[in-house]
Amino acid sequence: MTVFDIDRCVELEHLLFPEDDPWQAVSFRSELAGRHNRYITARDADDRMVGYAGIALLGDPANPEAEVHTIGVDPGCHRGGIGTLLLEALLATAGERGGPVFLEVRTDNAPAIALYAKHGFHIIGLRKNYYHPSGADAYTMRRPELTAAADEWAARDRQDEVLS
């Protein structure tokens, strides 16, 4: 992601999260400036950005961890695999350092929870009134550190599900 993508990110934020204080341009600029953050985009065949995602790489080399900050996909592209591709790219980035990966997700976002569960995340906590101003609750989810071999087997299992 570059600063040239920010306007589209803000547009998508307002479509995706209208009741939960969508990120403004200043938030994306701040995230892009953070040296421990990695943000990516997904584009369609016409080079239009249809999704974005970001992760923070935290901890130190002896105790690394990561936190997924956001994943957003254009509503017109939902159920097309873009969210999966973005999440897998974030997990690959985190996997280069090792350690667990954390995230928060609305408790009523069943498709996202299912996506995260397919990728090894487990609910470890509940944050009441996490999202503002709606007051929606969030689950905290954790994906334990996986070896490269375990990640490869999980990817094969997901591919087998698609083919069957």
Automatic annotation (TrEMBL):
N-acetyltransferase domain span: 1-146
Species of origin: Nocardia rhizosphaerae
Keyword ATP-binding among UniProt keywords: no
Protein name stated in the entry: Ribosomal protein S18-alanine N-acetyltransferase
Pfam families associated with the record: Acetyltransf_1
Cellular component, GO annotation: ribosome
InterPro entries: AcTrfase_RimI/Ard1, Acyl_CoA_acyltransferase, Bact_Acetyltransf, GNAT_dom
Stretch forming the signal peptide: none
EC top class, as a word: transferase
Enzyme Commission number(s) of this protein: 2.3.1.266
Recorded GO MF terms: protein-N-terminal-alanine acetyltransferase activity
UniProt entry keywords in alphabetical sequence: Acyltransferase, Ribonucleoprotein, Ribosomal protein, Transferase
